[in-house]
Amino acid sequence: MSDPVCPQCGSENAYPDGSQWMCPECGHEWTPGEEATPEAAEGAVKDANGNLLADGDSVTVIKDLKVKGSSLVVKGGTKVKNIRLTDGADGHNIACKIDGIGAMNLKSEFVKKA
């Protein structure tokens, strides 16, 4: 069996340290098999129920959301199709278009996977 490569930087110099693996180049620590699970991926986006979201998914808004800078409101129960996941530097990690409102960003904590 060959030694695993670091899931963060791809280094082949990883070594075992007890029950975990260590990367001497970037300092990342992981358990064997962790790199294969999508939940372990950096920046994995989950909905309000803990389901993993992906680009192109459809989601439903779970509560009324005021649109900042206008008098519009996104009503709870609104279905949003074909979402795009973003880096979410300001907490808004979903980019989408909502009928009647237009392009906007949402926080994943206010949606559930449809």
Automatic annotation (TrEMBL):
Top-rank lineage group of the source organism? Bacteria
The residues that cross the membrane are none
Residues in domain Protein YjdM N-terminal?
4-31
Segments forming domain Protein YjdM C-terminal? 45-114
Family the UniProt entry places it in: Belongs to the YjdM family.
Q: What is this protein called?
A: PhnA protein
